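Example complex used in Figure S2.
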Amino acid sequence: MARPLLAIAFWLAVWQGASLAVGSHVLLVGPYEVAVRLTELIHTADFWAAVWLTFGRITLGFVLAAVVGVLLAALSAASDWTEALIAPLIATIRATPVVSFIILLLIWANSSQLATIVSFIMTVPIIHGTVYSGILARPKPLLEMASVFRLPRWRRITAIDVPALLPYFAAGCRTGVGLAWKSGIAAEVIGLPTGTIGERLYQGRIYLETADVFAWTVVVVLLAFASEKALLWLLARLERRLSA
Amino acid sequence: MITLTSVTKAFGSLVVLRDLSLTLAPGTVTAVLGANGSGKTTLGRLLLGLETPTSGTISGLSGLRGAAVFQDNRLASHLSAVGNVRLVLPRSAPRSSVDDELQAVGLVGDSLTKPVRSLSGGQRRRVAIVRGLLAPSDVLVLDEPFTGLDTDAKAATLAWVRARLEDRTTLLITHDPAEAEFLGATVVRLPAP
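Predicted assembly (437 residues):
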């Protein structure tokens, strides 16, 4: 425990030292100034409104991606035909730069929906890929057991499929949550939906309020971290429940 | 009546069973003995519908419900002993009867409720046996079911199995003629590979 804290303290000291060396609040603010600015921000209603709005939109995009990613993985595993049908779609999404989606969506959709749609699109291939791998790696001996004993479908899903897929799904979620936040915030910075974290980041850049940019970035990092931890906690609970 | 007629099973160029003809009368126990690699497990898998013959026919299986004690247990490792057994039982089966049956083969206390991955090899074996025997079935395949049990546990479990075979058509795969004799089985010896 002490070693990671020491490492963090070391890098904060490096950051503070660099800030002092640069000597410009526009170019690089130090961690102390960022902490002060963050403390000011969290005492405003606008801060929490922006946090909830962005959190809600990106979380919605991620949850939809998790559902659709699992369904597409199940379809991919259902037959060679469906796998062949879905593979190019996933490959295209993977290869397309996120900014291309953002610009196209700005033409097609309302900017308020942008973060949800972009985080959804960027996360679907991750969840699809990991869950599909999990489906292919399900233990054949247990599937044979289920076939011999003619387990009802629901029992097979809860006793064999879900426990086998959970580690894969969790790995996909861990990567997917981070990507949903990065792409969702990028979408907000470009689309500038009113009252969002992305808009605040953009304003920080325009008005050269570098402390604001750092403070909001810290908020995004903390939200992404908390989302990941909450999700993994939920999955661990589900695993315990299945064992009961 | 389950009848195998000139059944051959090959995996690629490897012939595991060659031209086997065998009849399993309803409600009887047939013990299959043979050296390693003689095709005993493959015969069990054919009866369970997990393999199809390369040539020859198997008749009389249609509509029959299978159950098995697999050589490698095949338990859901995150479920308890009770959970694994109840998995294959009708929803209406009372939990208390499952507890009683597991206790009858020597599983007591928290070994009934903790995940089977934390049980010993012998305990997991007995869970697999209870699951296989309690599952509703017409055809039962027991693939070296008593391997890994100590002498006392084996004796108790053998007696428990004999009392619960009922009128199922049973295939016992074993290396031990004494097990076959205890279960009143007709012995079939497969030729060495």
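Chain A touches chain B at residues 141-142, 144-145, 147-151, 155, 159-160, 163, 239, 242-243 (CB under 8 Å). Chain A has one domain: 33-243.
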